[in-house]
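Hi W.,

Here's what went into the run:
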Amino acid sequence: MNDPANIEYRIAHLQERLAAEEQGELGLRVENRGSSVTVAGTVSTAHCREELLRTVREELDGLTVHCDIVVAETAAPDHPEELS
Amino acid sequence: MIRVAAVGDIHMGLDSQGVLRPAFETLPDCADLLLLAGDLTRHGTPEEARVVAKEVTDLPVPVIAVLGNHDHHDERPDEVTAILRDAGVRVLEGEGTVVEVDGARLGVAGTKGFGGGFVGRCGSEFGERMMKDFIRYTRRRADSLRASLTDLAEQGCETRVALTHFAPVPDTLAGEPLEIYPFLGSYLLAEAVDAVGADLAVHGHAHAGTEHGMTSGGVPVRNVAQPVIRKAFNVYHLRGREHPEPATAAASADRSG
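Here's what came out:
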């Protein structure tokens, strides 16, 4: 169940599902780091984050998963960049 | 000076309404126009497009957009474009538009662009029909970018911006896995920008990339994907190119004396 090849394919299937389902998510990094899997990236809303975490838990059930998913920041900038 | 606000990859869905509007309402204080660098929706559905349209409706600055690959996913890019245009957004694909700012003319040329990769590490028009179609699709978009930049130059736009979704240079992809660079952009876009000249090239698409880059011809490139800039938008001040000062009557008189 937890042999490395199997984990690789489960990660691939997770990424296919994230792209195909509600979130249409292609911008996440999902990496096999030996004894655990890391999922990192930015999503557009808190709802997306919840849905994403739920899908990750389902697809990678039984594996140790470390998630670093942040919601995009929506504040206006406080200064411009001067281009010459 | 022209103040250009830009953001890409806002990926709005039905749960996003109102998320960016408060920041967008500050635009008149800090920018003369807003550029949207594609991936405005998650799946390119008309419902999602209406969320985007409402978010930018009646903003007091011109809003200029290109679509991204997500905006094509539902295979209704024309409907998405129409919904955004009804909200006043100038949606560009292989065309340009002019914004007048205090008497200066800013030209924005836009195309979604596409992938293919960067010099020495790219696909070519060779082999299977599908592979040739892939690169030709990118080349057509790059050619349209070149043509619209040329047209803007001929219309007297001294200041020009190239707006794409896919990246014209690899610099702004730093942070993405090297293996996927050919899916993130194409040198053909940068070649088009450098052929005509521009003051800024803006793109999105690469969420894990970095903001700053430059074409071989010295045009600044900015990746404004929202996960990269970590704001509702960024603002760039363009000074335009330096032109020789016209000789005043007094200076002419001095020289003649």
